[in-house]
Amino acid sequence: MQIIILGLLAIIALLIGGALYLWRTKGWRSKKQWIVMLIVLAAALQLVNVTLMMTSQRLSG
Question: What is the mean pLDDT of the chain?
């Protein structure tokens, strides 16, 4: 379970990094949809990650 949680954290970091890269190189106005989509996807994955962490704590505790 720990590997899945760490993997999701890595994917979240890549998504946010991609959004920041697009923002810095292409600008907000031209890539607004892509930046928002990447951030929303990262937030959704973070919700899944928190749920997995809470479940793993309940199972181990």
Answer: 93
pTM strictly above 0.90:
no
For the chain, strand residue ranges (E) read none
CA–centroid distance for 16 within its chain? 6
Measured from the Cβ of residue 42, the count of other Cβ atoms closer than 10 Å reads: 19
Q: How far is CA 8 from the centre of its chain?
A: 7
**Within 10 A of 38 (CB to CB), how many other CB atoms are there?**
21
CA angle 54, 56, 59 (to 5 degrees): 110
pLDDT digits (tens, 9 = 90+) for 38-50: 999 999 999 999 9
C-alpha to C-alpha distance for 11 and 16, rounded to whole angstroms: 9
